[in-house]
Each structure stands twice: as C-alpha cells, then as structure tokens.
Specification:
With about 475 residues, the chain is of the alpha+beta class. Helix 4 packs across helix 8 (about 310-325). It has helices at about 5-15, 30-40, 65-70, 80-90, 175-185, 205-210, 215-225, 310-325, 360-370, 390-400, 455-465; strands at about 15-20, 45, 55-60, 100, 110-115, 135, 140-145, 150-155, 160-165, 165-170, 190-200, 230-235, 240, 245-260, 280-290, 295-300, 335-340, 345-350, 380-385, 410-415, 430-440. The structure holds flavin mononucleotide.
C-alpha cells in the first residue's frame, strides 16, 4: 500500500475530498486544512495549488478512523484499542519481516541533481503568518546512518526552506539523530541524509516513535503490513529509501554550518523564543531530488491541537510507551492513552487492575522511567480497570470521586523537558520540567469498602435484545 492506494481507498469511503478550486500555498492551503482537521473532517487533496501543477495532501492522520485505516484495522476501534493491536503485533512477532530490496521504483521516475534541483519546484506551503519560511518538511521522515553501529535511523524533523537547495532542520538536542550528527562532527565528516515524503503512511509512525529491537523503520513497517515493503538505496548517500515514495531529497548536513531557522507555528499551539531571537540550526544541502511524476506533497498543519500531527504523534508515542511498559512486565496494565488533546505528549492516562498496595504509583513511575515517558511528559493519571484510558468522561468521573488531592498527588521536581513547552518560563532551564502524578484509583486497601451503583447485567442484556422493539434503533 502506498499513499496513492490510500487516496483511492479513502475517496471511495468518503474519507478524502478533492479540492478542485485554486488555493494559495501562502497561508490559504494550511488554514483550510486546519479548519477541516479541527472538525475531524476528511483528508484533503488540493489539486490546484497557485503557481503549481502538482497536488498537496493534508489531514492524512487527523482522525482515529484514518489512523485505523492506515494500520489496516476497523474504523470502529478507539485509540486505545488501536494501540493494543499495534503492540500485539510488535511484541508477539517472533521475527520482524524484512524489507525487499529493489533497484528502482516509482520514486526514481524523475531524478534531478546539482544546479537543476530546486525545492521550489514543489508547492511548499507557508503555514502561519509569523513563520520564518515556507516549510517543506512537516510530514517527512529523515533517514540517517549511525557511523558507529551502521544502524539506520529515522526521525521526523521540521524543515524550513532557506533557498532552492538548502533546508533548515530542527533536530532537538538529545534526539538519536542529534547524537548521530555529533558522531559525524567528531569525525570531521558531513552527515548524509535522505528526506522522504509519501510512500506507505505507516512510515510516519515508525519515524515518530521508538521501536525497541527493530533494525530500522523498514522492518517495522514490513512487520506491521505483514509483507516486505520495497526499499532501494539512494545512489549518492547509500541510504535506504522506500521505492514508492513521492519525493526524496538526498543531501548532507555539514555539522560545522548553522543558519537561523524558524520560527514555526509549533504543535503546542505557540511559537517558541525564536520569534524574538531566531536560533541557528543545521542545514541540509540538497544534492539530488527523486520524485514520482506529478508528486503529491504531504503536509501537516502542526499548530494548536487537535490536528493531524497531534493524532499521529499521540498514537506513535502511545504505541512505544505501552510496548515499553509491557516489556517491563509490570502486572495489571489494561490500557494506555497519550492525549492528542494535550498536544500528543504532555499527559498520559493508564488504566490498571491493582494487584497490591502501591501498584498505581509503581505504574506512574514506570511511565516516567520509560524511554518514551522520560521526555516532555508533565502529568500521569492512573485509573482503575473499569475505565478505559481513552474514555475521558469516565476519567473525569474518577478524578471527581476517586481521586484524593492530598493522598493521590505526587510532584516530581526534575524531569527531562521539551524546550518547546511554552509553560516553562523564559528564566527557567527549559530542559527541565516538574511532573505530577494523579492517582485517581480507589486505593487497593480501600477496595470493597465502597458500594458502587451498578446496572444489573442481566437486565442490560435483556434490554439490548429488545432494543429495536423499544424503538431505540440507531441510538
Ligand atoms: C509531524 C512531526 C514533526 C516533528 N518535528 C520535530 C522537530 O522539528 N524536531 C524534533 O526534534 N523532533 C520532531 N518530531 C519528533 C521526532 O520525530 C521524534 O522525537 C523522533 O523519535 C526522533 O527520532 P530520533 O530520536 O531517532 O532522532 C516531530 C514528530 C512529528 C510526528
């Protein structure tokens, strides 16, 4: 399945709409996309972008239904149920399926290099008024190779356009890609990169999360699809790319060269300090561009939640967090939900079946101790097993009636922050955040002392059988 297969499928299912009227790449396209995403509307294929003949797609991941469709699952599943499916595949697959190597693919239909390569050949949008650039990279993944281990790495990083052949890239400190870049710097070498857009939309999950034990995102996507994805080696860098990508930019980053990049309308719904003082960041020098004929540019609006990126990010992080918790072998974890509503990173809810006193606290601390939870997380809510973690009205019920502010709250003073968190005041160290644990379970030792109002299960069953007769069909 490549992006074009999904476009056909979604069009038939009413999950995608073609915008045939002319739309300006300058603010108009992103604003239309954002408004539609906030209404949980269809993906949009903008067919007529001003000054261009090739299209742009937005909102690929913006609803739970489309996330499910990308994962090949039923659209009725909730975020938690979808994550459980993903986790089952990733933890139960004895061996990961490996990608299939090919010599060429649709992406090699057009190859332009040197002076002829020009990123402005594509309808790169400008998203928000105060943005410092047009942004080519919002829904891309960047492939790099760790020079020490030879392992292939993927990460999604925003990329602002400096000029025809230069992209500014924001690689936040401490990310794997940042560590790889530092290794090249120590060796006095440039870091080869491939920036991939399009292909199987599953790649973006593999790139936004961390998958323990996987050789590379190619194996992760192949395993999830249950069949090998096609992979070819880009000629100049030798890096692997999907054969059916829409656009691939091949180039290198010179670690000694930094240029001011930003600001950009972040996923927090805010700009960072860059508005006042632009920050020098690495630069990709484009050597070659591969693209399909009439390539589809994939864009995600970022900005305030909930939009496309928040759904994608929340899902990818939830999948890696839950997998990590599973691998820690902590008993009783029923469901995990990383809230897209809280920008896809800052709050996590875990539902547990308590087995011993202190279990809820153990789980909360395990979330913080995990690789995924250690970065940027500010709040963890633990609820009992009768509440699925993504059932927000019930979570609020638990916070209302089971949570005790004095006994159920813990503050952890120091944790790794994302520097993009606007709640950290400018005088604070933006790499450190406090965290809060809200234990909204009935404490283990209190279980059985409270009498809950419950519906009679036999009565519920009888009524469900008479639902139609009662004239309640469709409710
Ligand atoms: C749409 C989207 C945009 C992102 N933009 C950035 C970014 O600009 N900078 C960054 O450091 N991480 C960004 N991320 C998060 C990284 O992709 C994520 O942390 C990834 O795991 C990094 O990979 P690495 O640790 O292997 O380098 C973004 C994620 C998504 C889904």
């Amino acid at each position: 399945m490549d992006l074009r297969d999904f476009i056909d499928k979604w069009e038939k299912e009413g999950e995608l709409r073609r915008v045939k009227a002319e739309v300006d790449w300058n603010l108009e396209l992103s604003h239309i996309a954002k408004l539609v995403e906030e209404k949980e509307g269809p993906a949009l294929l903008f067919e007529k972008v001003k000054d261009y003949s090739s299209p742009v797609i937005t909102g690929v991941y913006a609803t739970t239904g489309r996330l499910a469709s990308v994962l090949g699952k039923s659209k009725d599943l909730t975020m938690v149920e979808l994550t459980r499916e993903w986790m089952k595949t990733m933890t139960e697959s004895k061996e990961l399926v490996q990608a299939r190597e090919v010599d060429s693919g649709p992406v090699t239909e057009n190859v332009v290099e040197g002076e002829r390569a020009n990123i402005f050949d594509f309808p790169v949008p400008r998203y928000y008024e105060r943005d410092g650039h047009r942004y080519f990279g919002t829904a891309i993944f960047m492939v790099t190779k760790d020079p020490a281990s030879g392992k292939i790495n993927m990460g999604t990083f925003r990329m602002g356009v400096h000029d025809e052949r230069h992209l500014g890239v924001q690689i936040l400190k401490g990310k794997k890609t940042d560590r790889i870049l530092n290794s090249y710097a120590k060796q006095g070498k440039k870091m080869p990169v491939c920036v991939v857009m399009g292909s199987d939309p599953l790649f973006m999950f593999a790139s936004a999360g961390t998958i323990p034990g996987a050789r590379s995102g190619f194996d992760v996507v192949s395993t999830l699809r249950g069949e090998p994805v096609s992979m070819l080696y880009a000629e100049l860098t030798g890096l692997p790319i999907p054969g059916d990508a829409e656009i691939v930019v091949e180039g290198e980053i010179d670690p000694t060269v930094l240029k001011e990049e930003g600001p950009f309308g972040e996923y927090t719904g805010y700009y960072t300090d860059e508005v006042l003082k632009p920050i020098p960041k690495p630069v990709i020098e484009i050597k070659r561009i591969y693209h399909r004929t009439d390539p589809i540019l994939v864009a995600t609006t970022v900005g305030r939640p909930v939009g496309d990126q928040h759904m994608l990010y929340a899902f990818a992080r939830n999948a890696s967090l839950w997998t990590e918790l599973e691998k820690m072998r902590i008993p009783g974890i029923k469901s995990v939900y990383t809230l897209p509503e809280a920008a896809g990173r800052f709050w996590v809810i875990v539902s547990i079946q308590q087995v011993y006193p202190g279990h809820a606290e153990q789980v909360a601390h395990a979330v913080i101790a995990s690789n995924t939870g250690t970065y940027g997380l500010k709040g963890i809510i633990i609820v009992d097993e009768d509440i699925q973690a993504d059932d927000l009205p019930r979570v609020w019920w638990a916070l209302g009636v089971r949570y005790h502010p004095l006994k159920g709250t813990q503050i952890i003073n120091r944790g790794r922050a994302t520097p993009l968190d606007p709640a950290l005041a400018s005088e604070e160290n933006k790499l450190i955040t406090p965290r809060i644990i809200l234990n909204a379970t009935t404490p283990f030792e209190e279980k059985g002392k409270l009498v809950e109002v419950k519906l009679n299960e036999d009565k519920v069953k009888e009524i469900k059988e008479r639902w139609k007769e009662l004239g309640l069909e469709g409710i």
